[in-house]
Specification:
285 residues; 9-stranded antiparallel β-sheet; two-stranded antiparallel sheet
Length: 285
Amino acid sequence: MKKISLIGFLFVSFLAFPHTHSLQLVKSGGDTLLERISLPYGFERVSAEENSFAEYLRNYPLKKAGSPVLLFNGNEKQNQVAHAAVFNLKIESEMQKSVQSVIHLYSDFYLKNHLEDKIAFHLTNGEVCSWNEWLEKSNFKRKTRQEVSGNLKKWTKYEASELSSDSKSEIYKSYLKNVFANTSPLSVMEYESSQVKMEEVQIGDILFDLGQPEHICLVVDMIKNKKTGEKAFLLAQGSNPAQEFHIIKNPKRENDPWYYEEDFISLLKTPEYAFPKDSFRHLKY
């Protein structure tokens, strides 16, 4: 049997796996984003304040490595090669799509940290639906319907069943379902976000493109090169139809899910969407 030189072996390996990164940054273990996703050489995570949303996301429970992304009905999403990890975030309704998953995370964060006053979201007609108000009125079945100016569609601000015997968690679920049904990416863009430059981006900001408003990506982690100052971002998404929230891969790099500043120079390509330059927006939650 003819022996192959080391150089020949490496050349053949390169041909077989041309896009394989020399460093596998997505581990096969680890229960959180912080434990599962490693850093590229020379980078460090930006600091996050204690009890901040950034810290919350970094320590959010992930499903077991290799888990598929499931739809709201329990079926697997058709595309199973675009994600690096799956958040263990329950799908509360078939309306929990892209922006609704982001709202869900922010709302859970505030509830966990006893910041109930911050749980309030603009509906598509511009009015605010707050958790405290919903909770106060949860024992009454109240339906308020009003025509949106210039639109024949109608919205429902309160549509809660009589929940006098139910727990607070069930009331909270009913609140989320109502918010999901009456919010949209466009309402978030108009009422709850503002455009930011690359140097201003924070964990918890979003990528939004008016040309395809049904899709939003959330910045769930951010790192910085210790020498050059270059930033890189970890992006996550829900989508339509409603599906589990998941960290997406970078199609440019086989084993590296981070998105570097150079990736945003023109059109940012993710596995399933493309965002034009300057698509970052800061959420005002």
